[in-house]
Amino acid sequence: MVSAVREWGVMNLVDDVVGLAGPRGRIWAVGAQNAGKSTLINAIGKCSGGSVSHLTEAPVPGTTLGILRVEGVLPGNTKSFDTPGLLHPHQISIRLIREEQKLVHVSKELKPRTYRIKVGHSVHIGGLMRLDVEELSVDSVYVTVWASPLIPLRMGRTENVSTMLEEHFGRQLQPPIGEGRVEELGKWLKREFHVSGNMWDSSSVDIAASGLGWFSIGLKGEAKFGVWTYDGVDVIVRNALLPNRSYNFEVAGFTVSKIVSTADRTSNKQCRNEKRKLNDSTTEKPAEPSAVDVASTTC
Ligand SMILES: Nc1nc2c(ncn2[C@@H]2O[C@H](COP(=O)(O)OP(=O)(O)OP(=O)(O)O)[C@@H](O)[C@H]2O)c(=O)[nH]1
Ligand SMILES: [Mg+2]
User: Fold this and answer.
1) Taking 90 as the threshold, does the pLDDT of residue 216 lie above it?
2) How far apart are CA 69 and CA 125, in angstroms?
3) In angstroms, rounded to a whole number, what is the distance separating the alpha carbons of residues 225 and 235?
4) By three-state DSSP, how is residue 17 classified?
5) How far apart are the C-alpha atoms of 104 and 297, rounded to whole Å?
6) What is the pLDDT, as a whole number, of residue 296?
7) pLDDT digits (tens, 9 = 90+) for 64-90
8) Is the CB of 87 under 6 A from ligand 1?
9) Ligand 1 atom nearest to CA at 42
10) Ligand 1 in contact with 292 (CB < 6 A)?
11) Is the CB of 37 under 6 A from ligand 1?
12) Where do the NOA1/YqeH-like C-terminal domain residues begin and end (predicted)?
């Protein structure tokens, strides 16, 4: 695993690529839209000591529009090519509108959000994916969500989820943004997964939805999960990519996304400042109400 942004592991990748390509090879960056191909070529240029490329990187899909030959990124006569991203219909991200993609796109370091839950409980990742714990050979399981912190989560009893789709998708559970978008994303379907793990202190298995993120599962035993997302979105099981989990557990109910809590904090701060200004002005001269008074009453 590498981070092209932080340049973690890029030197090792350069060594492998140079070894495989030989002095006259051709390197092609090929992959899904927005996967980070251009950023990776730029990082390889920086780390290999070759010439630094300035390919356009952007958090929107479809940035690279044609095949670009990039000179001198790798030593010798190795040639590098950047390519436009491939459109995968099984990725949830390509069904999203721009405002929804902004919530799903991971722009900061990912942080684990972990629940310790028992059979009969469900975790939602916005209105895009849900995991139901249907059977467990042990008392509880650790479920860690790896997805953009801008997406709100919800954990609660599975028996109460039937109203989520109608009442909360598009609102507390975003994306999709707005109820009208829920239907546009497709049919909400369940798939079943049987997984097993052999340790408590780290996750063993990931259940991942293409273009969104994944649930990491930590347990010592067997489990059966129902996993819900929209028809046609790829859901796979793999060995845990990041075995660590958070030691501060999330609590039941809706977890406000960072975007909402930051907005709340900002508006509370404004409110406090306005109240303070109002108090100051009333102690100085208790005169008629001003524009500030009027504004502060709305906080
Ligand atoms: N955190 C993190 N972000 C990355 C990494 N690589 C790319 N990104 C971000 O992902 C977004 C897309 O990167 P690009 O390099 O433009 O992706 P691309 O595959 O060339 O995209 P297209 O040309 O549209 O197919 C940018 O906002 C990058 O900053 C990475 O290793 N870590
Ligand atoms: Mg690109």
Assistant:
1) yes
2) 39
3) 12
4) helix
5) 36
6) 33
7) 888 999 888 887 788 899 999 888 889
8) no
9) 15
10) no
11) yes
12) 144-241
């989990």: which residue's tokens? Answer: 245
Q: Give the bridge partners for 193, in sequence order.
A: 225
Residue type, 186: G
* Cα 3 to averaged position of ligand 1 atoms, centre (Å): 10
CA 215/CA 219 separation, integer angstroms? 13
Sign (positive or negative) of CA dihedral 192, 196, 201, 205: negative
Whole-angstrom distance, CA of residue 19 vs CA of residue 116: 45
Q: Which residues of 87-109 are buried (b: 16+ CB within 10 A; e: fewer)?
A: ebeebbbbbbeeebbbbbeeeee
What's the 3-state SS for 65-109? Answer: CCCEEECCCCCCCCEEEECCCECCCCCHHHHCCHHHHHHHCCCCC
pTM: 0.79
> Ligand 2 centre from 45 Cα, in Å?
15
C-beta neighbour count of 250 within 10 angstroms: 20
Tokens representing 281 are: 């002005």
Is 38 a pocket residue for ligand 1 (Cβ < 6 Å)? yes
Task: Point out the ligand nearest to the CA of residue 7.
Answer: 1
Structure tokens at 252: 């039941």
Three-state SS for 10?
helix
Of 135, 114, 133, residue with least CA distance to 122: 133
